[in-house]
Write a structure and sequence with these properties.
The chain has 18 helices and 26 strands. By secondary structure, the protein is α/β, with parallel strands linked by helices. It has three domains: 236 residues, Glutamine Phosphoribosylpyrophosphate, subunit 1, domain 1 (4-Layer Sandwich), CATH 3.60.20.10; 175 residues, Glucose-6-phosphate isomerase like protein, domain 1 (Rossmann fold, 3-Layer(aba) Sandwich); 142 residues, Glucose-6-phosphate isomerase like protein, domain 1 (Rossmann fold, 3-Layer(aba) Sandwich), CATH 3.40.50. The structure holds fructose -6-phosphate (F6R).
């Protein structure tokens, strides 16, 4: 959740660390801090509550020199949002400085032990334990002290550590929280996220679980040697460019991100999908009888859409579970099943825990993730990358539509291994090829949605409803609305309305009805009529050309026609824009909604 970065090299560390932190701020933005070491002028440590993006004036007035340092942007877990709890955390002598992403689960017992030995703590965080633990083991060699200290830790960590008493060196260690080393020209960086280093270098080495690395001005070393890799995107991908918010940029990028997700993966003549990442398990997949799909949040709504796709087109029974629930139930998952994990970041703690649980039972695990070399990509048996490009806005948009496209590809792939006909396979493949253009068309509703947002901005509550493939779309629309605008919103299966939620409806109650012209359109219309009878205000998302709906709903946003299984990809676009514009009209912080952060690496 938190963002960490370290720098050692010939440049001034301060601007590198600050711009790296800004590019990683989506990982957490309660407070930030840094520690910079200069051989002549000593060490400068600074911490501040609030967002780094709002601290330009303070930072602009600072003169900090030094060629090595580390920095942190925080999403609070242990201890409130205070300066004392912001990172870096220091040992008793103020010599060892630690920034940390993760959770030290046994921090209470370690703290008790260290306090009994005379260490004094000044924060409420779990991280401060690490600084004192490293101090306890320090005898002049920082790597050795870090190695001994992490040996005592239960939980997750990505840490970057400096010590005045073993200068010209940064030590980094990883377990359960991602870390990578950036290899630049006469400089080395370490960070929790490629976005933090991409302005300096695209050559990176991802640390493996349990590894410790040492960076000096001239070199870096890890226990296991391996070749660096290239980051396959540019610094512009993690900057807003002409857009006022990352979210809007990412909504607008969807035609392109979908093209990238689909590129080279369709064989329309054969009605097939070609998924290189699944080749090693191709034969095993033929024998799979059931698929458990696990994910969190928006990715879970993609999973729920996949449930319909897999059952209808691959003929495989699919069951979806929130990753946070899966490992706590007595599951009937067995070796005839596969687990499909979906995660944009590939670092979501609950999703990783569910994968590990399934693997321990000998179950085949498949991942869909947007993050190359993420923990999920490493831990699953096989998988498919989204290739949607970095998603910085905390609210997921382009990753969601990319997940839906990849899940359609997967359903086609598995379906053609089973009974899906050539003709149906060709139809799906050809329609997937059109999807980026259809999303481009759907984006044309933006001016209309902006106007509608002005009418909906003062709502206290909203309902979103849909059936079959668009029931998860309704839930996704409601999630976007609540996380961005803080309006209470619920997403319902249209048929469930009369089983309780209808009691909420009174004159003018806003309901967004996703009702494309599909196999359940008539049923959706019946539910809209029930709502109209109670004077609800209906905003319909309907297929272009459907004039009847204009006579029923109060407002209509039209989306282009596509195959029923792919409608969520186009139908979600106006819902993303609606949440964006309502939040904007309410003055909310769109890219950094309160209490949230991207990539939830804690359970
Ligand atoms: C909502 C949102 C979250 C994530 C969820 C899972 O807009 O972004 O609900 O979808 O935290 O994250 P990943 O996909 O990284 O596992």
């Amino acid at each position: 959740m938190c963002g960490i970065i370290g720098y050692i090299g010939k440049q001034e560390a301060f601007p590198v660390l600050i711009s790296g932190l800004k590019r990683m701020e989506y990982r957490g933005y309660d407070s930030f801090g840094f520690c910079i070491h200069d051989n002549e002028n000593g060490t400068t440590t600074f911490k501040k509550v609030g967002k780094i993006s709002a601290a330009d004036q303070v930072l602009g007035d600072m003169k900090v020199s030094g060629n090595m340092g580390h920095a942190h942007t925080r999403w609070a877990t242990h201890g409130g949002v205070t300066e004392a709890n912001a990172h870096p955390h220091l040992d008793c002598k103020g010599s060892i400085s630690v920034v940390h992403n993760g959770i030290v689960e046994n921090y209470k017992e370690l703290k008790k032990e260290l306090e009994a030995e005379g260490h004094t703590f000044i924060s409420q965080t779990d991280t401060e334990v690490l600084a004192h633990l490293i101090e306890k083991f320090f005898d002049g060699n920082l790597e050795q002290a870090v190695k001994k200290a992490v040996g005592r830790v239960r939980g997750t960590y990505g840490i970057v550590v400096l010590s005045k008493d073993d200068p010209n060196k940064i030590v980094a260690a990883r377990s359960g929280s991602p870390l990578l080393i950036g290899i630049g020209e006469d400089e080395y960086l370490v960070a929790s996220d490629p976005a933090a280093v991409v302005a300096n270098t695209k050559k990176v080495v991802y640390l493996n679980e349990g590894e410790i690395a040492t960076l000096t001005p001239d070199n870096y070393s890890i226990y296991t040697e391996r070749e660096p890799q290239e980051i396959d995107w540019n610094v512009e991908d993690v900057e807003m460019g002409k857009y006022p918010h990352f979210m809007l940029k990412e909504i607008m990028e969807q035609p392109e991100s979908l093209r990238n997700s689909l590129r080279g993966r369709l064989v329309p003549d054969e009605g097939k999908a070609k998924l290189g990442g699944l080749m090693p398990i191709e034969e095993r997949l033929r024998d799979i009888e059931r698929i458990y799909v696990i994910a969190c949040g928006t990715a879970r709504y993609a999973a729920l859409t996949a449930e319909y796709m897999l059952e209808e087109y691959a003929g495989i029974t699919a069951k979806v579970d929130a990753a946070s629930e899966f490992r706590y139930r007595k599951s009937t998952i067995d070796r005839n099943c596969a687990m499909l994990a979906i995660s944009q970041s590939g670092e979501t703690a609950d999703t990783l825990a569910a994968i590990r649980e399934a693997k321990s039972k000998g179950v085949l695990t498949i991942g869909v993730t947007n993050a190359v070399e993420s923990s999920q990509a490493r831990e699953t048996d096989a998988g498919v990358y989204n290739h949607a490009g970095p998603e910085i806005g905390v609210a997921s948009t382009k990753a969601f539509t990319s997940q839906l496209a990849v899940l359609a590809l997967l359903s086609l792939y598995l379906g053609r291994q089973r009974q899906l006909s050539l003709v149906m396979g060709q139809r799906i493949a050809n329609e997937l090829i059109r999807i980026p253009d259809l999303v481009q068309k759907a984006l044309e509703c933006e001016p209309q949605v902006r106007e509608l947002a002005a009418k909906y901005k003062d709502c206290g509550n909203m309902l979103f409803m849909g059936r079959k493939y668009n029931y998860p779309t309704a839930m996704e629309g409601a999630l976007k609305m609540k996380e961005l605008s803080y309006i209470h919103a619920e997403g319902l299966a249209s048929g469930e309305l009369k089983h309780g939620p209808l009691a909420l409806v009174e004159d003018g109650f806003p309901v967004v009805a996703i009702c494309p012209s599909d196999s359940v359109y008539e049923k959706n219309v019946s539910n809209i009529m029930e709502l109209k009878a109670r004077r609800a205000r209906i905003l319909a998302v309907a297929t272009e050309g459907n004039e009847d709906i204009a006579g029923i709903a109060d407002e209509v946003i039209y989306i282009p026609k596509t195959l029923e299984m792919l409608t969520p990809i186009v139908a979600v676009v106006p819902l993303q824009l609606l949440a964006y514009h309502v939040a904007l009209a309410r003055g909310c912080d769109i890219d950094k909604p309160r209490n949230l952060a991207k990539s939830v690496t804690v359970e």
